[in-house]
From TrEMBL:
It is found in: Cell envelope. It holds the Pfam family SBP_bac_1. Belongs to the bacterial solute-binding protein 1 family. This is Extracellular solute-binding protein. Its main location: other.
Length: 440
């Protein structure tokens, strides 16, 4: 094709894409989905610029937990952009992003979360997507503002380095049969941790040779995320754990796990809830999609609003999105953005919500209403309760946080198990973290 014909073809393609964009947008308005809604105009249908239609293969790194490949990526991308082939590189031992970068095999696209971003910055794989966002007319107003802010605060120079496709949530799962057995009312929405602990005291007992536990915090991270606390001060690069905020976190863990008989007995509280069926309440992350087997095995369960600190009512976790990044080294960034366009489209997000019960990071209220709609074992569950809380703002992460958290958590368990008092535990953790920073 000569240059003149090439320009003519590009103009035709641009006209067709703009026409198709206007048609799909109008259809969306007529159907009452997408288009103009409570959030304003949905610009995702305004049509990206014409780009190459030459065949291209993109390597993408993610796990099946993060992405339902067939319904969220492979099929919809193939349908809309038949020239793009996705080569899925499943995560696993020796196959994480660090390993692939070290081997000179960096994928074009890879999934991660905000807590990983300091490490990704060290690998120098994050790119500034804002020029591509502008080029492809990506409507960032579709997203929950806190999600975009969380990605920027964790990125390079407050830049947007990826687009979110899944937002974590927290819920209080509970075993209705244990509550019924001991005549204790079910958890209510709006409970504080103090309220949950009082319920736990009534439910922690042994009957018929079976030891029942009332409550487990599930994870150390789960109870400190709502406080938006730093482990390392990003301004001074020094430990920031020997203070009242962290005492509050350590104290909460102690009050839960020191209830007589409520000491942790299994390594996995999630298994204790789902399989052993001996844990009455489990405040945890979104594992709705994994409750099918437990439901079929007879677990009589429901969910309530996540408990909150008294001074931080209706707050859970932190803004914790899964993000798809375009690697800085990718030679096919336009095609990668087309994949992101499909992945984050209303159509794909809605199917994700309905079929996997994962929460889209969009303002659109229909996404929350649709959560788990096509999953029969979730029918009748009080999922609406979860949305009475909102996530806490993210702190600024540092490159030291992952290693520092290991030492802080070790001190937490030393305190829980009465090996150290709280002041000693936090002081020792601070000293150890500062030593790690000096040797980094």
């Amino acid at each position: 094709m000569n240059q003149k014909n090439g320009w003519i073809m590009a103009a035709i393609l641009l006209t067709l894409s703009m026409t198709a964009g206007c048609s799909s947008s109008q259809a969306a308005v007529e159907k009452g989905t997408g288009g103009k809604g409570a959030e304003g105009t949905n610009k995702e249908n305004s049509g990206p610029p014409a780009v190459s239609t030459e065949p291209v293969t993109l390597n993408i790194l993610a796990s099946a937990y993060q992405v339902d490949f067939e319904t969220m990526l492979i099929d919809p991308v193939k349908k809309k952009y038949p020239n793009i082939t996705l080569n899925v590189m499943a995560t696993g031992t020796g196959k994480n992003i660090q390993d692939l970068v070290a081997a000179g095999n960096t994928p074009d696209l890879f999934a991660g979360y905000t807590g990983m971003m300091p490490a990704l910055k060290q690998l120098d794989v994050l790119d500034n997507l804002e020029p591509l966002v502008k080029k492809f007319r990506v409507d960032l107003d579709r997203y929950e503002p806190a999600v975009i802010d969380a990605i920027k605060v964790s990125g390079n120079n407050n830049e947007l380095s990826g687009l979110p496709f899944n937002l974590q949530l927290n819920a209080l799962y509970y075993n209705k049969d244990i509550f019924d057995r001991f005549g204790v009312p079910y958890p209510k929405d709006g409970m504080t941790w103090d309220d949950a602990i009082e319920l736990a005291r009534k439910l922690t007992r042994t009957e018929g040779g079976v030891a029942y536990r009332g409550l487990d915090p599930e994870s150390f991270t789960r109870i400190f995320y709502p406080r938006s606390v730093n482990i390392v001060d990003p301004k001074t690069n020094k430990a920031a754990v020997n203070n009242e905020q962290w005492k509050t976190v350590f104290d909460l863990g102690k009050r839960i796990l020191s209830i007589p008989g409520n000491e942790r007995k299994e390594s996995s509280p999630i298994n204790e809830f789902r399989k052993s069926k001996t844990l009455a309440m489990l405040p945890s992350y979104n594992f709705f999609s994994d409750m099918k087997e437990a439901s079929e095995s007879g677990l009589n369960w429901d969910v309530a609003q996540y408990p909150s600190y008294k001074d931080r009512p209706n707050i859970y976790g932190m803004v914790d999105p899964w993000i798809m990044f375009v690697a800085k080294t990718s030679k096919h960034k336009d095609a990668a953005m087309q994949v992101l366009e499909v992945l984050t489209s209303n159509e794909v997000m809605l199917q994700m919500a309905k079929n996997t019960a994962k929460l889209p990071p969009l303002k659109n209220p229909e996404m929350k209403k649709a959560l788990g709609e096509n999953m029969p074992f979730l029918k009748g569950k009080s999922i609406v309760s979860v949305f009475k809380s909102r996530p806490a703002p993210n702190p600024s992460f540092t490159k030291y946080d992952t290693e520092a958290q290991k030492w802080l958590e070790a001190s937490f368990w030393d305190y829980i198990r009465d090996k150290k008092d709280i002041n000693t535990a936090l002081r020792d953790a601070e000293e150890q973290i500062n030593q790690i920073i000096r040797e980094y």
